[in-house]
């Protein structure tokens, strides 16, 4: 375990944001199914991507019965349950942290209807056996898009055509678009329909040279840092990305920050920030850093349609409300969101990182505008998605000191 002590500072300079974790998960799976491996940047793998790569090596190794360790990665778990079932594997899925408690009921409902035996006492461990059969799969669009991605990745492997039908409007649509784009790069296609997708079976994944694009969800932390007082230039981002968190550019501009493209570089500088209305249904991962920014804006910000954040690595709505309030912010929880009334400056203090990478990073950005040292627990959790976060933070002029707790 570790904590991080952060002293007030201003971040300035250029940063090359890390490769997209969301895209890397998908590329690693597609590449392994194609018999190769994805071309990743020469940068530290996050724990989540390591979990997916390790799981795909296990799946490719075959064997009568395999055990797939998903670590704390919800993407690894939800993407690979249907993949294992499509391949007819007898597999046990395990995980750590909060992962064993996170919902998998969508699969427990639909997979047994297609020849897959699922054995669980409600979470992990989960054992699956039997080969998944093609056909019609119906699931709600307002659950995690990870379930939809898992089925989209798996159904082309079946020996017949399938239809994936959404019984309610799709949320986090950008993540599904990303899945379909990545699959297309590896030679697998699906057809959009009025209520979902038609997925032809018997499609082989084909090797390709694939480079993972840069991560908009991680870029958002430094967009926030620039909006709150620095001048930051973000390099390597795809301005036409299908990543849902591409919306960060629009949202920080809506707050009032000076956000503009200068060639291929996205720059952000501070201006007077004002509270805004944020529908989080399509951008749930941005909520922690948006809440941190809103805490230091003039006026009120209302974040809504974010109820799914209560079942992430932590209850992210409760975690951000508690952390910002302990630092002198004015944050109220609603059933599905937050109401944030901005203050000029936060105070020093101690806050709980909740063993959640996005909470730790968001509170680290808020701490830039505190009047004293902010200590955040569970600093090691950034390994899940952005191992170099505090290194990059300090290179831009931040004052973050990670202290090991043994």
Structural features:
406 residues, UDP-n-acetylglucosamine1-carboxyvinyl-transferase, Chain, 4-stranded mixed β-sheet, 12 helices, 21% strand, globular, alpha/beta
Descriptive overview:
The protein is α/β, with parallel strands linked by helices and 406 residues long. The protein has two domains: 2-18 and 214-404, Enolpyruvate transferase domain (UDP-n-acetylglucosamine1-carboxyvinyl-transferase, Chain, Alpha-beta prism), CATH 3.65.10; 21-199, Enolpyruvate transferase domain (UDP-n-acetylglucosamine1-carboxyvinyl-transferase, Chain, Alpha-beta prism), CATH 3.65.10. The chain is 31% helix and 21% strand. The protein contains twelve helices and 20 strands. It has helices spanning 21-33, 47-61, 74-86, 105-110, 145-154, 173-185, 216-227, 247-255, 287-294, 316-326, 357-366, 389-395; strands spanning 2-7, 12-16, 66-69, 91-94, 117-119, 126-129, 136-139, 162-166, 191-192, 196-199, 231-235, 258-262, 265-269, 277-279, 300-304, 330-334, 337-341, 349-351, 374-377, 399-404. The strands form five sheets. It has a four-stranded mixed beta sheet with strand order 18-19-1-20. Strands 2-11-13-12 form a four-stranded mixed beta sheet. It has a four-stranded mixed beta sheet with strand order 3-4-6-5. The protein is globular. The N and C termini lie close together (6 Å).
């Amino acid at each position: 375990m570790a904590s991080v002590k952060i002293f007030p500072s201003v971040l300035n300079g250029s940063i090359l944001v890390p490769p997209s974790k969301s895209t890397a998960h998908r590329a690693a799976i597609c590449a392994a199914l194609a018999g190769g491996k994805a071309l990743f940047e020469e940068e530290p793998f996050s724990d989540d991507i390591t979990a997916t790569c390790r799981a795909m090596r296990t799946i490719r190794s075959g064997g009568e019965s395999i055990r797939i360790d998903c670590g704390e990665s919800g993407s690894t778990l939800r993407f690979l349950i249907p993949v294992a079932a499509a391949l007819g594997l007898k597999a046990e899925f395990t995980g750590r942290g909060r992962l064993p408690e996170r919902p998998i009921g969508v699969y427990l409902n639909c997979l047994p209807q297609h020849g897959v035996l699922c054995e669980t006492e409600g979470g992990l461990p989960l054992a699956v056996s039997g080969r998944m059969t093609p056909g019609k799969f119906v699931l709600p669009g307002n659950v995690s898009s990870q379930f939809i991605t898992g089925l989209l990745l798996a159904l082309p492997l079946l020996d017949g055509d399938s239809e994936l039908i959404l019984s309610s409007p799709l949320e986090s649509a950008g993540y599904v678009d990303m899945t379909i784009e990545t699959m297309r790069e590896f030679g697998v296609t699906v057809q959009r329909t009025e209520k979902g997708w038609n997925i032809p079976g018997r499609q082989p994944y084909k090797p390709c040279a694939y480079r993972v694009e840069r991560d908009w969800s991680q870029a958002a932390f430094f967009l926030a840092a620039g909006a709150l007082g620095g001048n930051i230039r973000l390099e390597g981002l795809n301005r036409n990305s299908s990543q849902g968190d591409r919306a960060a550019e629009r949202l920080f501009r809506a707050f009032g920050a000076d956000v503009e493209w200068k060639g291929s570089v996205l720059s952000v500088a501070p201006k007077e920030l004002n509270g805004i209305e944020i529908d989080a249904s399509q951008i749930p991962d941005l909520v922690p850093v948006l809440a941190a920014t809103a805490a230091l804006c003039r006026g009120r910000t209302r974040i809504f349609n974010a109820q799914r954040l209560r079942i992430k690595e932590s209850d992210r709505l409760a975690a951000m409300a508690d952390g910002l309030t302990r630092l002198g912010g004015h944050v109220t929880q609603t059933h599905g969101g937050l109401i944030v009334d901005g203050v000029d400056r936060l105070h020093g203090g101690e806050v709980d990182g909740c063993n959640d990478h996005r909470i730790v990073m968001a509170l680290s950005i808020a701490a830039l505008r505190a009047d004293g040292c902010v200590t955040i627990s569970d600093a090691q959790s950034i390994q899940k998605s952005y191992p170099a976060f505090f290194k990059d933070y300090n290179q831009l002029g931040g004052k973050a000191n990670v202290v090991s707790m043994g």
